[in-house]
Specification:
Elements lengths: L1 H4 L5 H4 L21 H5 L4 H12 L3 H4 L1 H7 L6 E2 L7 H8 L10 H21 L8 H26 L14 H8 L4 H16 L18 H21 L10 H16 L37 E5 L28 E2 L1 H6 L6 H5 L1 E2 L4 H6 L24 E2 L25 E5 H14 L3 H16 L9 H5 L9 H13 L6 H7 L3 H11 L18 H6 L11
Antiparallel strand pairs: 1-3, 2-6, 4-5
Helix pairs in contact: 4-8, 4-9, 8-9, 9-11, 11-12, 12-13, 12-17, 13-17, 17-18, 17-20, 18-20
Length: 556
């Protein structure tokens, strides 16, 4: 799909309509502007509108630096890793002083609503096209609804309830002013997302039904996968955070629906990708290389449930950076640097170590953990050494893009690259299944599913549940549930720096305790306050633009 997605411009430019956003939030292009009537006479406009909706997910704040500030930097997996004059990173990293004026929040808000608006344009205009076959109309509409539902799920986890805009707004219309500026409850938003994903899962093609050039477009598996994840959040929020009924169902019923959705994904042929050993495994030696599981050529593999397709040179900050490090310049900041705490969790024999952590010097990992050998140097997959940037010892290679054109013909180009953003993997689906099965009392299923993840991580059954660590280190907040603790810990290891840890802690009802313990361990104030910090504040600029119809989250 990379060859297709970059050639289309936003629907705002195709039909000559201007949103209430600044021009620089969209692609810098010189389009031929058409009237709505002219555009609708073009048989290709429907697909172009859909591609424009996919393109919205490459806006910097949807996937890049501002998204990292809101999802990864605050967690105990990371430290901001930014230079001293970077206010966003320092404030979010320490939690205190967070308010609606924080610079990263409004870009996250506007980029996500840009994607929603583009999806709404598809839903408005595609049904009116006389020169598009009905089956294609149904497909394009399903794709737009999938992106919109996924985007609302992302907003919900960051801000809580937000305005639910499900159609193109009419300027000056009093009812639409309410729609645009009045927040719905989390329950209402969850219901909308669930209903949308349920319906489009039956309308979207499977992965195999797309031809190779269209890989990356929405599938039934992606809709079902996100449905499973949403159900997990609903069930957890009901169980730990006082969320009310959703579609008339409580926690246990939603765990059952969650579990079924994971089985539906499995039935479509997804599986774990075993590319960890292509360049060698952990075990020491000067040429030990990191996993290639995150290479460009390993994208859209059997484990990929949904990936936002990268596009080299698309837009500034469009790269799926986790450590925002520019190899072309020594002056760039490091964003989301792995904390000592997450590094120490990985056993040296865990193949995920090299896929998640690289060290800047020979002794960093050994000195911290006592594992391996002092001479071992953790490297990127192309044998490149990690940057020597004080005071940070570790970096995450999942977003690293090689400059070796023999490995990647579209090698790194400044801040821009064509690497995909992997938003949902089958490993996540398996861990969701394990958690749901445990909540439903299906212990054997939960253990067997958890062990699939561990088998890949260690290459054998030596770490099958329960290990000594599972028995002796039960996580707080689990009520002493040993298996639940093991599954939660495994999510942290498997999905590190994939923007899940911060949100997992919130849905599990333990973010306050974990975050404050982590802050205290770093000599910082125990500044996290629940429920205030369970969501970020609404950007103050959005409240002002709404004439204060848009309400702020409590406590901010």
């Amino acid at each position: 799909m990379k060859t297709h997605i970059s050639k289309y411009i936003a629907i705002i430019l195709i039909i000559g309509i201007v949103f209430n956003c600044s021009d620089n939030e969209f692609i810098d292009a010189d389009p031929v502007r058409l009237t709505v009537d002219e555009a609708l006479q073009n048989a290709s406009v429907a697909e172009e509108m859909v591609y424009a909706t996919y393109n919205a997910m490459l806006l910097g704040a949807y996937t890049g630096i501002h998204w990292i500030y809101a999802t990864t930097v605050p967690s105990d997996n990371a430290i901001a890793g930014v230079s001293g004059n970077n206010k966003n990173g320092n404030v979010i990293d320490g939690i205190e002083e967070i308010n609606g004026s924080l610079g990263s929040l409004n870009p996250v808000w506007t980029s996500h609503y840009s994607a929603i608006t583009r999806a709404n344009y598809v839903l408005k205009f595609v049904p009116e096209l006389d020169n598009v076959e009905d089956n294609l109309k149904e497909l394009y509409i399903a794709e737009a609804r999938f992106i919109r539902a996924m985007t609302y799920f992302r907003l919900l986890r960051v801000f809580g309830g937000v305005p639910l805009v499900d159609h193109i707004l009419t300027p000056g219309d009093a009812d639409d002013k309410i729609v645009a500026n009045v927040r719905v409850s989390k329950e209402e938003l969850y219901e909308f997302i669930i209903d949308e994903l349920t319906e489009v899962a039956a309308k979207l093609p499977t992965r195999e039904e797309w031809d190779e050039a269209q890989l990356g477009r929405a599938t039934s598996g992606a809709a079902l996968g996100y449905l499973a994840k949403v159900y997990m959040y609903v069930s957890s929020d009901q169980q730990y955070n006082g969320l009310g009924e959703v579609n008339g169902k409580g926690s246990l019923e939603n765990w059952s629906l969650c579990h079924q959705a994971t089985l539906d994904v499995e039935a479509l042929g997804y599986d774990l990708d075993f590319t960890y050993d292509k360049y060698g495994v952990n075990g020491g030696g000067p040429n030990m290389l990191a996993s290639v599981a995150w290479l460009v050529y390993a994208e859209n593999n059997v484990e990929s449930v949904f990936e936002i397709q990268g596009n080299q040179g698309f837009a500034n900050n469009a790269a799926p950076v986790i450590n925002y490090y520019n190899w072309a310049s020594s002056e760039r900041i490091n964003l989301g640097v792995p904390s000592d705490e997450i590094v120490k969790l990985y056993e040296f024999s865990d193949r995920r170590l090299n896929a998640t952590i690289v060290g800047k010097n020979n002794r960093a990992y050994f000195d911290l953990t006592g594992q391996g050998t002092a001479g071992t140097r953790l490297r990127y997959f192309d044998n490149r050494l990690a940057p020597n940037r004080e005071p940070y010892d570790f970096f995450c290679p999942k977003s690293y893009v090689t400059s070796n054109k023999n490995i990647n013909p579209n090698a790194f180009n400044g801040q821009r690259n064509n690497k995909n953003i992997r938003t949902l993997r089958y490993a996540d689906i398996l861990l969701i299944r394990a958690e749901a099965a445990n909540e439903l009392g299906q212990t054997a299923d939960a253990e067997a599913t958890l062990n699939k993840i561990r088998l890949r991580a260690f290459g054998d059954n030596s770490h099958d549940y329960p290990t000594t660590d599972d028995i002796n280190n039960i996580l707080p907040g689990t009520g002493g549930d040993q298996l639940k603790s093991a599954i939660w810990r495994e999510r942290r290891l498997e999905l590190a720096f994939e923007h899940d840890r911060w949100f997992d802690l919130a849905r599990q009802g333990r973010r306050e305790q974990v975050t404050n313990d982590y802050l205290e361990s770093r000599g910082m104030d125990r500044a996290y306050q629940s429920p205030k910090n369970d969501v970020f504040p609404i950007p103050i600029i959005q409240i002002l633009l709404s004439s204060e119809l848009l309400e702020q989250n409590p406590g901010y």
